[in-house]
Design brief:
single chain; alpha+beta; nine-stranded antiparallel sheet; five-stranded antiparallel sheet; elongated
């Protein structure tokens, strides 16, 4: 009995023959062999050179554009070096195989960040290349075409960084499930175990690979059965293939479980924890798509059409149709978080299948093969055309290596961030009195491996309320002497509740603020005695009720009394959804906002710690920024808010989102911090401050830049986008009349770039007014700035200087010269400035008793100043030395080499003193020189002109 296409059975694998049994391969000639050798050599050289360049150029800047991936890529090998294994000693989305790869990449010797990251890059690239070569050599009989397939798959295998090794494994699993070119061949146990082993390896990489492999196997089996029914073939071989695969998968998982138990691990606990991690990720990390969904949908639709054409004919094999069907479900990986990287990881196996299909000579129909190849190439051109930095096979790496060898490309020394400041602080503590552990907030978790400091927050997850509670328990059990916390709301006010949860309550209970080491980074010290928050149960008419809510829909929860300021609403609840939604971790998108008497007190915020189908306890801050500063830094920022109700809005999210849900409120409570607000020691205002001294002493706080201060300047080179901006913060307490004075310049030829932008901000609580934004161009004289700080007299503020690149970042070598806080030139008593040498007598004689200036004879006084808004010159003019004396008074303003007359008048000694006031508004935001000229007329040469109370001040203050 035949069961498939009516042709002799064959034992050849992966496309080795046609129906007539004649081989489809072309015997490789010398050219093909040399092409394979050259490809292999180039791939290996690219891997080695790329790792070398990454290793020697690694610096702290790398964390600015990829903080999440680089953090776990360092923490995993660091934990392995301490004998802690993922899935055994801790649970993390990346399994033990990932950790093993990271550990191998970090060898030899103690952990080095550059070597670890470069090693993981090289290992994952090497695995992808091996997979590409194996697939090409087995699936493609023509050596010339196999060269194309191998190079294309190798390019795809690192198209989104190290994580791309996961879909490469999934691609291999799909191809291995149905490896024969002939669908009438008896499925073998070897085929089943190869596919099952790949799925099991996927489980050891990350839990999602096993789930997707099982879904792909079921879909491939279903499609094969449907094709056989369409072609009136017996289904036995399809059932046999699926049955053997299931048995082989069960055997592989059983063997893995036995080995795990022998090593002291619990496979059931691993699966349970991975399921909870995957559900938390799916529910709470979903975001609005960052890519054009229509483009991806079009690609998937074209692939489906190719699959249907391949399976529609009764003569064609079902191999390509089954492969495409198996790759399609893998695209679901992009559904929870559809950013570009996730979309590529989800679609990459399908693109790989189309590449293999296009190169297989036994695929009947040139048009079908061409369509598959064209579809794959369009996808690749779209991806790599947009993300050119991911074309890792480009020869650019050899050019970069040459620049490294010439000394033109190197790691940037002295690059400062919040992370480097935290690591430096911990290292100093180790030199003084080594702590047994230190805890860090999520944004600073890389400090654990970088400073070789254990702590309960290493690889800690806080995606939902359960994880936040578990993290808080770990922090309490460890009771480390220090907690270095980065206030998330300082930089991300758009994600207000993301950084807050029950772990925050544990931190507040155990720690108190000790010192500030960054604009957003606070070191907390372990309290001598714990403090407990004030908890007050709230009543509401919704308590105990289960509400049915359509999606979209909303519900208002009355709170019974008003919340204020730093209060949290503790909400004991259950979100019910259909069973399928619970299994898939799907949920609607929920936004919340607090209201007072039906009026919103703030904008809507996403609920970021949801759980579906289980009773959960969440904490929502009335004012997240106010709450974070109050609970963690013991400081109030801004005016507190009040609210008496909570509005929840439910919206659909993705194709898996339920159409309706039910919501039960079991309990409500108000949580209020018990610790008091800490007032900083009262200090006197600062009349003068050299900001270069602040940098040298470490009191200035830089981020995203290497300042490299000298005696007269520091550097503020803009960072390339999308890195965080280069910026430096100075803690100040200005005195009356204080200004920021500095110069800005780029020491490059005029045509060397398009310049940079510089911002001056004041950080005063939650208020962040931008005082100036200036364009600095190369080849121009330094731009002199004078920025008044009058609104913040005797207040503790942070002064921020930040730079931003424009279209061309190549020559933005920006410097800040002579930065200082000093008395404003346009808020000055000229007699005092004359005594200090800041006003100059260019001819004649002068006196400066008290607040007055006296010019004797033919005299001229110059005073340079910056004209800000509301600047006026005022004085009382009179002629001394007798009623017969007459003096001509002239006032000029010089700017850009031109002299402008402000006034000219004749003064007589017989006249009463005359009050004169002049506005300098015509020269707003210009650096000018004020000239006061006294010329005797029919008077003794020593006659004196008195300018009483000569001063620059605000016009409305004169």
């Amino acid at each position: 009995m035949t069961d498939g296409i009516a042709s002799p059975r064959s034992t050849h694998r992966l496309g080795s023959s046609r129906d007539d049994g004649k081989p489809t391969s072309v015997e490789p000639g010398p050219g093909a062999r040399w092409a394979l050798v050259a490809l292999g050599a180039y791939l290996l050289a690219s891997i080695g050179v790329g790792a070398y360049v990454r290793r020697v150029t690694w610096d702290a800047r790398e964390f600015e554009w990829n903080p999440v991936d680089y953090t776990w890529q360092l923490e995993l090998p660091w934990r392995a070096m301490k004998g802690e294994i993922s899935g055994v000693d801790f649970h993390f989305p990346m399994g033990p195989l990932w950790q093993g790869l990271a550990w191998l990449g970090a060898l030899p010797g103690p952990l080095d960040a550059g070597r670890a990251i470069a090693g993981m890059q090289a290992l994952t690239q090497l695995l992808g290349v091996i997979a590409a070569l194996v697939i090409a050599s087995i699936a493609i009989r023509s050596r010339l075409l196999s060269v194309w397939v191998a190079s294309t798959l190798a390019l795809l295998a690192y198209g989104a960084g190290a994580a791309t090794v996961r879909p490469v494994l999934s691609l291999a699993h799909v191809l291995a499930y149905l490896p024969s070119a002939r669908d009438d061949r008896e499925p073998t146990w070897r085929d089943a175990f190869v596919a099952a082993s790949l799925a099991t390896l996927g489980l050891l990489l990350s839990f999602d690979r096993l789930v997707l492999a099982c879904v792909a196997a079921v879909v491939m089996a279903g499609v094969e059965l449907a094709v056989r029914a369409h072609r009136r073939r017996q289904p036995r071989l399809a059932w046999l293939r699926l049955g053997r695969y299931v048995a082989a998968q069960a055997a592989c998982l059983t063997a893995l479980a036995l080995v795990s138990w022998a090593l002291g691990a619990s496979p059931l606990a691993y699966l349970r924890e991975q399921r909870q991690i995957a559900a938390a990720y799916s529910v709470n990390l979903a975001r609005t798509a960052e890519v054009d969904s229509t483009t991806i949908a079009a690609f998937l639709l074209v692939a489906c059409v190719i699959a249907l054409v391949a399976g529609a004919s009764r003569e064609r094999r079902s191999l390509e149709l089954v492969w495409i069907a198996g790759a399609l479900p893998l695209a679901a990986f992009a559904l929870p978080q559809p950013n570009p990287g996730h979309v590529f990881l989800g679609v990459m196996p399908l693109a790989g299948v189309l590449v293999v299909m296009a190169a297989r000579r036994d695929v009947e129909g040139v048009a079908l093969r061409a369509a598959a190849g064209l579809c794959a190439m369009v996808f690749m051109l779209g991806w790599f055309g947009t993300h050119r930095e991911n074309v890792w096979l480009a020869p650019d790496v050899f050019l970069r290596a040459a620049r490294v060898a010439e000394g033109k490309l190197a790691a940037q020394q002295g690059f400062e961030t919040d992370l480097t400041r935290a690591v430096d602080w911990v290292r100093r503590q180790r030199e003084q009195a080594p702590p047994r552990c230190v805890a860090f907030s999520p944004g600073l978790a890389a400090a654990h491996p970088l400073a070789d400091m254990p702590g309960p927050t290493s690889l800690g997850l806080r995606w939902n309320s359960r994880q936040q509670r578990a993290l808080g328990d770990s922090i309490a059990r460890a009771a480390c002497p220090w907690f270095v916390y980065q206030l998330g709301s300082f930089d991300r006010p758009d994600r207000p509740n993301w950084f807050l949860g029950e772990d925050l309550f544990a931190i507040n209970r155990l720690y108190e603020p000790a010192l500030r080491i960054g604009p957003a980074t606070v070191v907390l010290a372990l309290r001598r005695e714990q403090v407990a928050p004030e908890i007050e149960p709230l009543s509401s008419e919704l308590l105990g009720r289960t509400l049915s809510i359509s999606v979209p829909g909303e519900v208002v929860v009355p709170l019974g009394r008003s919340l204020e300021g730093a209060d949290f609403l503790w909400l004991d609840h259950t979100l019910h959804a259909a069973r399928l939604s619970r299994v898939l971790g799907a949920a609607p998108e929920i936004h919340y906002r607090f209201e007072q008497s039906g009026v919103a007190v703030d904008e809507e915020a996403p609920w970021s710690d949801l759980e579906v189908g289980t009773r959960a306890q969440s904490t929502l801050a009335l004012d997240p920024t106010f709450a974070e500063w109050r609970w963690l830094a013991s400081r109030d920022v801004g005016q507190p808010r009040r609210a008496d109700s909570l509005r929840l809005r439910f919206a659909p999210r993705g194709v898996l989102s339920p159409k309706s849900v039910s919501f039960t409120v079991h309990g409500l409570a108000r949580w209020r911090p018990a610790s008091a607000v800490v007032s900083a020691p009262r200090e006197s205002c600062q009349p003068d401050l050299d900001l270069l001294d602040e940098i040298a002493s470490g009191r200035a706080m830089a981020r995203g830049v290497a300042l490299r201060p000298t005696a007269e300047r520091f550097l503020l080179h803009p960072t390339p986008k999308p890195e965080k901006p280069a910026e430096v913060f100075f803690p100040l307490r200005p005195c009356a009349g204080a200004c920021l004075l500095l110069e800005l310049g780029i020491e490059m030829p005029t045509e060397s770039g398009d310049g940079a932008l510089v911002d001056v901000h004041v950080i005063d609580g939650r208020a962040r007014p931008r005082l100036r934004r200036d364009e600095v161009l190369p080849g121009q004289p330094p731009l002199k700035l004078e920025v008044p700080l009058e609104p913040w007299v005797d207040r503790e503020i942070l002064l921020r200087l930040g730079s931003e690149t424009r279209d061309d970042p190549s020559s933005d070598f920006l410097f800040v010269g002579l930065p200082r806080m000093a008395r404003c030139s346009n808020r000055a008593l000229i007699a005092e400035r004359l005594r200090q040498g800041q006003a100059q007598l260019v001819r004649g004689e002068s006196e400066a008793p008290g607040r007055d200036v006296r010019l004797r004879g033919d005299a001229e006084l110059h005073y340079p100043l910056y004209v800000s808004a509301d600047t006026c010159l005022a004085f009382d003019a009179s002629v001394l030395d007798g009623p017969e004396a007459t003096v001509d008074l002239a006032l000029h303003v010089s700017v850009d080499g031109r002299r402008h007359r402000l006034d000219r008048r004749r003064m007589s000694g017989s006249a009463a003193p005359e009050r004169l006031v002049y506005s300098l508004h015509d020269w707003l935001r210009r650096h000018v020189v004020l000239s006061v000229v006294s010329t005797p007329v029919d008077a003794p040469a020593g006659v004196r002109l008195e300018l009483g109370n000569l001063r620059m001040d605000a016009c409305n203050a004169i």
